[in-house]
Every structure is written in structure tokens, then in C-alpha cells.
Write a structure and sequence with these properties.
about 220 residues, DNA_ligase_ATP-dep_cent, alpha+beta, ligase, 5 helices, globular, ATP-dep_DNA_ligase, ATP-dependent DNA ligase family profile domain-containing protein, five-stranded mixed beta sheet, single chain, D-amino Acid Aminotransferase, Chain A, domain 1
Length: about 220
């Protein structure tokens, strides 16, 4: 299975930029049911291009092709052998307790030489956390968050080194407290009706970190 170059992927799939969240407090009780709550991973953002030909391309938030730095994700292409897709994800390095480690991720991101990268797949493993879908045979960015999550869940992409995180409905404070208990920095509140806005920072997504949960 080969690695697809970014230029080749662009001939098949739309070239999009990630949507970004604003930083803010948890939604108040009167509006909390308008959102779903996902864990804040603090990883390296990537858009995953799957042209449907057995190849995969990872593009960073700035559009750089970082596929060769993470060869363990090549097998993801076999999960969607025919469908063309663009997925929004974060690359995360976990510590011994299964919690995201910025330090370990930075070590992995600094590697470029193929031999160093090959060794790192064993010594500094990373996980691909997929949380949105921008294209699946046709654009999906105009669909509401709930519909995109349903499409993503139906793909059954979870496997070794790949995860689709849970999204808590309605219970803002409970979701935040559980995420913090599990060692994460907080949650992202995503409005259930919101479309995906490529390249934009929108209040439809609110990043809530420890210390920012209260208005």
C-alpha cells in the first residue's frame, strides 16, 4: 500500500482547511442541550485524504504533507477501499497512563529521517483521533454536526492506532468534569445544528479548558 502525495490527492478530493473553535466558558444550563461535548485532545491537527485507491495522505493544518512522518496510518486506507473521503483528525501521543502527552508528540513531530521515523513507530507510538468528516463521495460540510457524526460512526473506523472519540450529549458540566478526571485539558462544545466551516473560527465550536469552564 503506497502513500499518496498531496498533489495527487488534490486532483481527486477537495482541498479544505480545518474549522477552528473559539475559547470560552461552558454553555449555560439553558442552552447546554444545543451542543455535544468532545474531549479536548491537544494533538497535531491533520486532514486525512482517502482517495479510494488504497492510498492515504495526511495534510497538516497549514497544508503540509506529513504522511511520511506517520507510516502507521497507511493501513487506514484499507478501511475505506472504495469510498473517497476527507476526515478531520488529530494525531495524539499517549503517555503510560493513556493520557495525551504534548512532550511525546513534539518528539515525534520533530522526526524526518525514515530510519528515525521507523524506530519511533515502536518507541513513540501515536494515535489518530478522528472526529469529523468533510467529504464522503460528495461534500458533507453543509450537513449539521449530528448528521456528520452519524456518517463518521457508520464507517466503523476504530482499530489499532485509530479512534473515533465519544461525544456526550447535553450534560456540559458532567462531560467537562469527566474529561478532566481522565487527564484531559477539557472539552470542545459543538453545536448540534452547525455545518462545518472550512478555514473559519466559529462560536459553533467552543473550546473549554481548565480554568475557563465558568463564565
Amino acid at each position: 500500500m503506497s502513500v499518496h502525495s498531496s498533489s495527487a490527492s488534490r486532483d481527486v478530493l477537495p482541498l479544505l482547511s480545518p474549522m477552528h473553535a473559539v475559547i470560552g466558558p461552558l454553555p449555560p444550563p439553558e442552552t447546554e442541550a444545543e451542543y455535544a461535548y468532545e474531549t479536548l485532545w491537544n494533538g497535531a491537527r491533520v486532514l486525512v485524504h482517502l482517495p479510494g485507491d488504497g492510498t492515504v495522505c495526511l495534510l497538516s493544518a497549514t497544508g503540509l504533507d506529513v504522511t511520511a512522518q506517520y507510516p502507521e496510518f497507511r493501513s487506514l486506507a484499507s478501511a475505506l477501499p472504495v469510498l473517497e473521503a476527507v476526515l478531520d483528525a488529530e494525531i495524539v501521543a499517549l503517555d503510560g497512563r493513556g493520557r495525551p502527552s504534548v512532550e511525546r508528540l513534539q518528539q515525534r513531530m520533530s522526526l524526518r529521517h525514515p530510519d528515525a521515523v521507523a524506530h519511533a513507530t515502536r518507541d513513540l507510538p501515536v494515535q489518530l483521533t478522528i472526529f469529523d468528516i468533510l467529504y464522503l463521495g460528495e461534500p458533507t460540510v453543509q450537513l449539521p454536526y449530528t448528521s456528520r457524526r452519524d456518517l463518521l460512526d457508520d464507517l466503523n473506523l476504530a482499530g489499532p492506532g485509530v479512534a473515533v472519540p465519544a461525544a456526550w450529549p447535553a450534560l456540559a458540566s458532567e462531560a467537562f468534569e469527566q474529561a478532566v478526571r481522565e487527564g484531559f485539558d477539557g472539552v470542545v462544545a459543538k453545536r448540534l445544528t452547525s455545518p462545518y466551516l472550512p478555514g473559519r473560527r466559529s462560536r459553533d465550536w467552543i473550546k473549554i479548558k481548565q480554568g475557563d469552564a465558568e463564565a
